Amino acid sequence: MTIDLEEILNPLFSDGNIAKKVKARYQKNSILSLKAPDIKIIEKPFRTMQIFNVFKNEDFLTKFITEINCIKLHEKSNDLYSISQSDDLNILPLDRCGKIFKKLINKKLWEYCSLLVGEKLKSIASMTISKYQKGDYLLCHDDKCEDRCIAFVIYLSNVEWEERDGGLLSLFNHDKNSKQPTTEEIKLLPIFNSMVLFKVSTTSYHQVTEVVGDKTRLSINGWFHSCKAIKMPKPNYLYLSGAILSAQLEDTPYINVVCKQYLLQSVVDSISKDFLQNRAIYLPSFLKADFYDGCLNELNNQLKWKLTGPPNHRNCYLPTNFDFQNASPSVFPNLCKLLSILCSPDFAEYLSHITKHRLIEDASRTETLVNIEIQRWSQKCYTLLADNDVLQSLNFIDVVLFFGVDEVSDDEGDCGGLTYVPSAKKQKNH
């Protein structure tokens, strides 16, 4: 039986006059307001279109949702997202409504999006079912990958969604110089039977906020791809905001603040053996109790904090009243001493003994370079995997000192832990 696709979709997808007006408005060739009740064009932070009542045939929509709820989804979790997704719908053996939906996307929506952007797009869109449940999220990213041109998402959760439920699509402003995302400009509810689409660019930063309620956020999301070759932009390098510091050996004897057990040669040899086997090691009670307490007191009571990004790399608190280069020992005696120790050549030599990595190639050097940052972590803080986040050095050791944490648990339900991922196992972000 032949299916009339126009009987399923909102008439605006077939009305040539509306389509031309939408194109003119979307491409900013018209300053006239768009009088189409089911279309909303959002100008900032980047041009985005919302289409409501996408499917006018309610019977089809109900049956389609029933069908996709039977499709197997895969739980996916990495540094960027926690989500359940299907395989690409183009390769799945879909039922009747699913096959019709695929035609709607690859024919009617393809024609519509090609008109919007003024270029011919590949006629097969990549698309998957995405299900977000309590605790699921998708952190800030730009969707820029290979030949993606138009991103779209169709919301299929037939429930009344509120902002307090989470699962909102957030669109980010960006810094004009660095092109990095800054603040959230707008949050869009996943309204049932609506669609959001936008052109993918190096600044089309967006995220799906964590679902915090018991409702399920169901959607079809995907991309139309350009027929043109797209040159991928060079990555924006992000380095830790803390300054590159140096200190003299005689000013900072680390042996005065490190617990004596970690100075014993037999213990150092044992630590080194474990490190070489596991490539990482946790040393509890590393600092002497009185010095640790002094540092913790200054961190808790004397520093002021600000939530800092950019959100496509991280979201954590950094101090606003602590200048790494000019911090006063009279105000921050313990923290200044700690920084001096971490920057000292003898501490670098101590780390070299543990890790068997030479951090100072020239034994005659009297100083070493260290990149330091003080961070505070709490709920909703995160950092994303990125090869450009660290100093570009072959002899680089990551040292993290934890304060205010009673113990470290291996329970995956605990937050704030560190995860090191070998490059061969690193998942793609898109």
From TrEMBL:
Keywords (alphabetical) are: Dioxygenase, Iron, Metal-binding, Oxidoreductase, Vitamin C
The UniProt entry, under InterPro entries, shows: Oxoglu/Fe-dep_dioxygenase_dom, Oxoglutarate/Fe-dep_Oase_C, Pro_4_hyd_alph, TPA1/OFD1_N, uS12_prolyl_hydroxylase
Task: Write down the PANTHER family for this protein, in alphabetical order.
Answer: HISTONE ACETYLTRANSFERASE COMPLEX (PTHR12117), PROLYL 3-HYDROXYLASE OGFOD1 (PTHR12117:SF0)
- This chain's source organism reads Clastoptera arizonana (Arizona spittle bug)
Query: In the UniProt record, does the keyword Cell membrane occur?
Result: no
Pfam families tied to this protein: 2OG-FeII_Oxy_4, Ofd1_CTDD
Source organism, top-level taxon:
Eukaryota
Cofactor(s) needed for function: L-ascorbate
Q: Which GO terms describe its cellular component?
A: cytoplasm
- Record field: catalytic activity: [ribosomal protein uS12]-L-proline + 2-oxoglutarate + O2 = [ribosomal protein uS12]-(3S)-3-hydroxy-L-proline + succinate + CO2
Q: Domain Fe2OG dioxygenase: where?
A: 123-226
Give the family this protein belongs to, as stated in its UniProt record: Belongs to the TPA1 family.
Could you list the residue ranges that cross the membrane? none
This protein is called uS12 prolyl 3-hydroxylase
